[in-house]
Write a structure and sequence with these properties.
Chains A, B, C, D: It holds the Pfam family HbpS-like. Chains A, B, C, D: InterPro entries: GlcG_carb_metab_protein, PduO/GlcC-like, PduO/GlcC-like_sf. The structure is a homotetramer. Chain A is of the alpha+beta class and about 140 residues long. The first copy, chain A, has one domain: Beta-Lactamase (2-Layer Sandwich). In chain A, strands 2-1-4-3-5 form a five-stranded antiparallel β-sheet, with helices on both faces. Chain A is globular. β2 of chain A pairs antiparallel with β2 of chain B.
């Protein structure tokens, strides 16, 4: 299973719909493939200018480390110097908080990741999961 | 007039449809707003991994310089050191070739830009223009 | 409403006048537009050499995140690794303290930001607000 | 003689007035001090988003090298690898074309530089010189 554009579109649209249903702030959603490369992105009207970078940072760290946002955050809290160092080797592109959701196949292989930003990190993750489920995939928050 | 997500979606979809109609190679399309920030992006299945950066670079230079891809390419051919220097001040993010299409309002104010990559630069620009026209906007190749 | 040069000049001049009226240290004031791009900047005689970067950093983070300096500082205090990561994705350009004042329209859309530096962060914010009010705009400290 | 804020303001305003008198495209003007640090900057309405970086690059190279834009351009044309290398050591911040005007005192000591961008490089330099003369200073194009 790979993250096709068709699947990525479903993820983006359904994550945004979830945000509207929950009356969240304007969201931005990115979908990355197994190499950490962008497949699709959308930023809702009213979202602040820098949201691509933040959504991307949440998803990028998930793919590069094979570790979802919640686990990254725990690591950042337990061992800040480790996540700082990780950001050194990845050019500062990793944002280690929830809203970066890892996509795995049933065998645990990383297929890509989804990054959502705009509301609280926990709500961002809820929206991401709605999109992932609509696409028939499994997410790790 | 601003580049809403609705307009950006239309640009992306119609540019990709044009690519399919013309049997171009897999395309990637980005839409940036007036500040050079990403509103929407899609990469077709089969496109190479780095296409976000190239699409973005075509559109980003157009917004930052207020100069479309064709004019940037001419400048790069006439005065290579100038475009090199421009790329220095913009962190290497400018790709000065056609396929970076500038969006202006009737008064000439930059509203954003569209970047398409995947086929020849000229075909990329044709696909971009199809998307822009479908969204009721005016593009400068 | 956009941040015209005329409005930006008013903001800069009136912020500096406020600094003189309050006998603050020499101030530097930058005004950014909705895309985070500089519209105007002035540095008073006697201010230290690096003040452009600091003023810019205060305002840039506000625009990119849609979050004023006070809220950024709280986030940096609560979750230092998050603001570190944000600075990674924005190339180290974010200075998360008061003195970065967000400009919004009545619907909450970000119009730009003002960054003031030179005195205490709180006094910087007071000077910024004086300029913003003189320009008939609304600031979020 | 140093580049006070008062002088810098005069340079910026008179350069912009010259641009209006000559019906040039919207201009952006930066004034740097003897250390290459920004004293003042203004970007006219309608100028493209990235004009601060270009104006800055023109002036910054002039101060750092003690060489005005015309001389830098000649060097770039004669010895491209040298200007590339210069840009390496200065972090890509040098834009070696006219419109970067050096400010010297009567003994030849560098006092700062003015960077203008928006129209042709030669017209940019004309506007810069108008500002510099209005401030009672001497410019080297």
């Amino acid at each position: 299973m790979i993250v096709t554009l068709k699947k990525a579109r479903t993820i983006v649209r359904k994550a945004l719909e979830k945000g509207r249903a929950l009356e969240l702030k304007p969201l931005s959603v990115v979908v990355l493939d197994a190499g950490g490369h962008v497949v699709a992105f959308e930023r809702e009207d009213g979202a602040s200018a820098g949201r691509f970078a933040i959504a991307h940072g949440k998803a990028y760290g998930a793919v590069m480390l094979g570790m979802a946002g919640t686990a990254q955050m725990k690591r950042a809290e337990d061992q800040a110097y480790f996540m700082n160092a990780v950001n050194g080797v990845f050019g500062g592109q990793v944002v280690p908080v929830p809203g970066g959701v890892l996509l795995r196949n049933p065998k645990g292989i990383v297929l890509g990741a989804v990054g959502v930003t705009g509301d609280s990190s926990d709500n961002d993750a809820i929206a991401a999961m709605a999109g992932i489920e609509a696409a028939g995939m499994t997410g790790e928050i």
